[in-house]
Amino acid sequence: MRNSGIPADFIKSASSNPIVTTLFAADPSAHVWEDGKVYIYASRDMDPARGCDLMDRYHVYSSEDMANWVDEGEILRSDDVSWGRPEGGFMWAPDCAYKNGTYYFYYPHPSGSNWNDSWKIGVATSRHPATGFVDKGFIEGLGGFAMIDPCVFVDEDGRAYMYYGGGGKCEGGELGDDMMSIRGGMRPMEGLEDFHEAAWIFKRNGLYYLTYADNLDNNNRMRYAVSRHPLGPWDYKGIFLEPTGCSTTHGSVAEFKGRWYLFYHNQDISGQGNLRSMCVDELHFEDDGSIRTVVQTKEGVRSTGSAPVPAADAVTYAPVSGSSAGGLAEAGAYAQFERIDGGRGGRAALYIRYATDERLGKLRLTVNGADESLLNFPSGGGASDFSGRASVTVRLQPGTDNVVRLTGGQGDVRLESLTVVLLDD
Ligand code: FUB
């Protein structure tokens, strides 16, 4: 049976930052799509990290109320990209656009081993916002040295524009109807001050805003400029996000149910600039359209009121083998959940209840013997307080023989149960 929703004891009445804790995800590009939900297209900091070169396996997150975020699962990895660099990795900050029933996922990826000279902008498409993406190749004529971080803006008149850049250079141009070609070429975005990377465009009251990361050493801030035309020239306005504590900064702006939000990342969970976590805080405008400095909070934002429905047909499993009772502190100790029903097979959200008194415990997740990821289990209230909550979405095989294993050795984490929600494909 297919179902949806979140287990009742995972539903939060208020948000908190970072908004996703189980995986390290960065570079959030947020969009509100026609189903009324807000979606974040994020890059993924693989753990353990090595610079930003191992980044891979894009995940999408969705929310109905800004307080509860559902991991929609992985949509693309470097192995899926036929034209990409042979060593993989380097799946950096992406974006997504919607036009005429198709979702276009844009991502920067090098095409050669000399990674910073060979960037291209890849495109994958789907009829769904968070699953079913198929790689369509790259945009001809775009890319090269440091040219990363695509952002696509579809205007009210249906015309679409692409922006990208890095290393101090920002370019923009109009996309063709196929959303994969550039009409009339790209041109430099004029008027920006101290541009580094992470271009993002949005429109409010007829005014276009271009936000970006600046070059402050090891502590990038976010700046912005405005224009009456989507391709500028731009009128520089100032800094609106001070350093987050992370060496990179990257953000997006979206309006949801009448409020404006800034999505960005920091390194609060890991303390490492290459293991980042996404945050959201409110964005406020002055009467003249200028942006107030965003207040970075731990509390995050208020729920917009429409909390998700509790999952009705979710199935809960207890660990049936391994060493869950004694915790998973020892290297090689594991807890295993067996005979998990994957229904017809496909995406399944795993909701894990745990206890730990570690600041940050970690367990390695394997599904049917395949290594999925190292998962985070941040402090849950104490060694025997099973109020800790972690969730991640994976793919299960059809039928009831799925096996989920969590292996320890990185902090004392105890597992109570696993609830599985099968997601519509
Ligand atoms: O996440 C990898 C790179 O770091 C992004 O592409 C940049 O914007 C910066 O966040």
Automatic annotation (TrEMBL):
Task: Report the source organism.
Answer: Cohnella zeiphila
Q: Which family does it belong to?
A: Belongs to the glycosyl hydrolase 43 family.
Q: Domain of life here?
A: Bacteria
**Where in the chain is the site Important for catalytic activity, responsible for pKa modulation of the active site Glu and correct orientation of both the proton donor and substrate?**
D149
- InterPro entries from the xrefs? CBM35, CBM6, Galactose-bd-like_sf, Glyco_hydro_43, Glyco_hydro_beta-prop_sf, Glycosyl_Hydrlase_43_Enz
What SUPFAM superfamilies does the entry give? Answer: Arabinanase/levansucrase/invertase (SSF75005), Galactose-binding domain-like (SSF49785)
Q: Name one GO molecular function term.
A: carbohydrate binding
Organism phylogeny: Bacteria, Bacillati, Bacillota, Bacilli, Bacillales
Task: Give the matching PANTHER family.
Answer: ENDO-1,4-BETA-XYLANASE, PUTATIVE (AFU_ORTHOLOGUE AFUA_2G04480)-RELATED
Identify the catalytic residues.
D47 (proton acceptor), E197 (proton donor)
Task: Read off the Pfam families from this record.
Answer: CBM_35_2, Glyco_hydro_43
Annotated protein name in UniProt: Family 43 glycosylhydrolase
Q: What's any GO biological process attached to this entry?
A: xylan catabolic process
Q: Where is the CBM6 domain?
A: 293-421
